[in-house]
Amino acid sequence: PYTVAVAFDRGKVGLWDFTEDSVKDPKLLKHTPKIKAEHDKKYDGYEGGQVWPARVRATLRDGTVYEDEVINHKGTPNNPLTKNEVISKFNDNIEPSKYRDLGDGIIDMIFNLEKRNVREIMEVLR
Question: Residue 68 pLDDT more than 80?
Answer without folding.
Answer: yes
